[in-house]
Amino acid sequence: GENVEQHPSTLSVQEGDSAVIKCTYSDSASNYFPWYKQELGKRPQLIIDIRSNVGEKKDQRIAVTLNKTAKHFSLHITETQPEDSAVYFCAASKERGDTGRRALTFGSGTRLQVQP
Amino acid sequence: ETGVTQTPRHLVMGMTNKKSLKCEQHLGHNAMYWYKQSAKKPLELMFVYSLEERVENNSVPSRFSPECPNSSHLFLHLHTLQPEDSALYLCASSQKTRPQETQYFGPGTRLLVL
Prior knowledge:
heterodimer; A: 116 residues; 5-stranded antiparallel sheet; globular; B: 114 residues; mainly beta; 7-stranded mixed sheet; 4-stranded antiparallel sheet; 56% strand
C-alpha cells in the first residue's frame, strides 16, 4: 500500500519568515495530494491540494509543489503569521477503478510554531 | 455546526461497555470515512463507505463495527474496547465525482477507554 513520510515533525520560524514542509510517497499511481491544517482541538481543514497533472499551485501565501519523478511534494508558507501555528498533514491518494473510489494516506504531521 | 457533525464530542467508556459514535454530513456527499487519530501518529484510515457500501476496511479489529444506513449518516459501534483504542475518531465525507475528491472532516469524538 501507499506510504507517506513527512518532515520535519516540528518546525519553528520567526513571524514573517517562510516555512517549508516536505512529504514523500511510495505509490507512483497516487495522483491527488491534499494538505490539511489542524489547529489545537479542532478538525483537520483542507488548505490546498494538487493533482498529478500540475507541478505547482498557489493560493495567496500558500503554495504546493509536486515532483512526480521523485515522488515528493512540498508545502510552502510565505510571510508566516502566528495564526499559521498548527499541525499540518500531507496526504496522498489514488483513484481505484472506474468507481472513483479513493482513500487518503496521511503523513505523520508537522507541528509548525510561528514565533511573534 | 454545518457540514460534517459528530456526536458525542467526548466519550469515556469502560472496556465492557458498548457505545456508538455518530457522524452526519449535510453536504450532499456520497462517500464517508472513519479515521483514527492517536497522539504522535498519522491519521489512520479505518473504513470507507461509498454509496452506503463498505469499500475499504484497513484491518481494523472487530471490536469496531461501522454502519452506514444512508449516504448522510455513518456510525461506529464500539464494544469491548481496549485502553489503546483511546484516540480522536474523525469522520469525513466527500463527493466521489471526478475530478473532485476533497474530504471534509467532522470535529471528531475524543474517546477515552478506561
